[in-house]
Design brief:
By secondary structure, the protein is of the alpha+beta class. The protein folds into two domains: 88 residues, 2-Layer Sandwich (Alpha-Beta Plaits), CATH 3.30.70; 224 residues, Vaccinia Virus protein VP39 (Rossmann fold), CATH 3.40.50.150. A hairpin with a 2-residue loop joins strand 14 and strand 15. It is globular and about 70 Å long. The relative contact order is 0.12. About 4% of the residues have low confidence.
Length: 338
């Protein structure tokens, strides 16, 4: 069976070329779990961004479920023998709203479609892709919670942690207004998670109900390296985080990072073991980073030192891409195995 997957267009012509490569790598990883033997190629002849899919049999429900949540899906078509295209599916409906992760704009914000890719790469590298409903998600450096909002739209319970109180306050205000404007039933509460040495992590908790289900969002003011103290062991299925680039971000390193030198590397030395502890066995961590200031192999080495099984080779080595002059973004993925 042959299919054509039309991709969501991007306004930046140069980045548009990168998106086809990223979309193909993402789709290959997803179909590698749901439809082994499927072949994915970039359609160079098409006048629009498009991927060609060929597989031995019809795509089953697991594959269609995955494709509907691909970060750049615009429309999936079946290629007929007469050359015509039969529309099969579009993007999966969002639980709360497609615009939820897109509305809030701020300096250093990561594109929501790329974060969807990052989450997908993490999900399909782990053990929970076959039952992807109701998972627990964490972004330990969430900024104003774009990635947690994406997780909520997938029906997951999400936690966004950050050391910047102002970013979390903005996320809280925005999400409260969003729920009220769209008339979602919800409840907001405040609590505190006890940390060691008499410290605590303030948490704002939202419980929101939609027609298709209910979700919980926790916004937690906490150093990334101390998140395990606040969340507990084996509590999360997926961790995904766009690490600060040190170019456009006004990054706040938190208490665990020493001044001077590569503070991000120093932070990760402490944070990765904590994230390993938080993850359930079979869970994954997916991190994006600026490859101009932090080499992929060094990050993978830190992941391995923390106990992770690092995913290497094949499509996992094909996510490096240009973003702007000072930023070449890449992705590293690792799995917790016991």
């Amino acid at each position: 069976m042959k299919y054509a997957m039309l991709l969501w267009p991007h306004a930046n012509a140069r980045y548009q070329q990168e998106t086809r490569k990223l979309a193909a790598a993402e789709l290959k990883l997803m179909l590698g779990r749901t439809c082994p033997g499927a072949a994915v190629e970039i359609d160079e002849a098409a006048n629009m961004p498009c991927l060609d899919i060929e597989c031995p049999d019809k795509l089953d429900e697991r594959s269609l479920y995955a494709i509907a949540r691909h970060s750049l899906l615009y429309q999936l078509f079946e290629r007929r023998e007469d050359g015509s295209l039969l529309p099969l599916l579009g993007r999966a409906p969002a639980l709360l709203g497609d615009d939820l992760p897109a509305i809030l704009k701020y300096k250093g914000k990561t594109n929501e479609m790329f974060l969807q890719l990052l989450i997908n790469v993490g999900l399909y590298a782990g053990d929970f892709w076959e039952r992807p409903e109701g998972l627990a998600f964490l972004d330990p450096m969430c900024g104003r919670a774009t990635a947690p909002f994406i997780a909520l739209n997938r029906g997951w319970n999400a936690t966004g942690a950050d050391v910047d109180k102002n970013d979390l306050k903005e996320a809280e205000r925005f999400f409260k207004r969003y729920l009220e404007y769209h008339r979602f039933k919800h409840h907001m509460s405040r609590e505190s998670r006890t940390l060691r040495v008499g410290k605590s992590a303030p948490v704002v908790k939202f419980e929101a109900a939609a027609t298709e289900g209910s979700v919980t969002l926790n916004l937690m003011n906490c150093d990334a390296a101390r998140s395990a103290e606040a969340m507990g062991k084996n509590s999360v299925h997926i961790i995904a985080c766009d690490l600060p680039y040190g170019v456009r971000h006004d990054a706040m390193p938190g208490q665990s990072a020493p001044k001077g030198g590569n503070w991000l590397e120093a932070l990760l030395v402490h944070a990765l073991p904590a994230w390993y502890s938080i993850l359930k066995p079979g869970g994954t961590v997916a991190l994006s980073f600026n490859a101009q200031s932090f080499h992929r192999n060094r990050l993978r080495g830190l992941m391995a030192d923390a106990g992770f099984e690092v995913m290497v080779g094949g499509e996992y080595d094909r996510f490096e891409h240009w973003v702007e002059q000072a930023i070449t973004r890449d992705v590293a993925v690792a799995r917790k195995v016991l």
